[in-house]
TrEMBL record:
The lineage of its organism: Eukaryota, Viridiplantae, Streptophyta, Embryophyta, Tracheophyta. The keyword Magnesium does not apply. PANTHER family: U-BOX DOMAIN-CONTAINING PROTEIN, WDSAM1 PROTEIN. Keywords: Transferase, Ubl conjugation pathway. It catalyses: S-ubiquitinyl-[E2 ubiquitin-conjugating enzyme]-L-cysteine + [acceptor protein]-L-lysine = [E2 ubiquitin-conjugating enzyme]-L-cysteine + N(6)-ubiquitinyl-[acceptor protein]-L-lysine. It comes from Lactuca saligna. Residues 13-88 form the U-box domain. Functions as an E3 ubiquitin ligase. CDD domains: RING-Ubox_PUB (cd16664). Pathway: Protein modification; protein ubiquitination. It comes from the Eukaryota. This is U-box domain-containing protein. One of its GO terms (molecular function) is ubiquitin protein ligase activity. It is an enzyme of class 2 (transferase). Gene3D superfamilies: Zinc/RING finger domain, C3HC4 (zinc finger) (3.30.40.10).
Amino acid sequence: MEMERSNLDSEIEFPQDFRCPISRDLMKEPVIISTGVTYERKNIEKWFFTYKKKTCPATMQGIENFGVTPNHTLKRLILVWQNSHSPSSSSSCFPCSSSSSPLPSFKRDEMVSLLKTLGSSPFKEGWMCFFH
């Protein structure tokens, strides 16, 4: 199943906002740092604790608080997006009648709501492009 998801990840062009600013890979465990920017947990921890960097990689702003907060909203948004673009319903977390059917309206509404919640992100310019 993980191999199947890895192949899917390489075949589908994910929205840039779902990619870690450090690695450009799809985020699986997104976390927010004190500057408000979201990164993949393992990448930002490596930046801070292995490379001993004391700046935000995206903004180059100095960091004093190295704590991270899970970005559950973005993680759910990524999962919803993945499931809506999954070639088979067997690999999705949400049941769908077929791989070519659009998201039911309640899932679309949930996704729009999640996107609005993320509106305060420094990268907000690209969020609503999915629905235009």
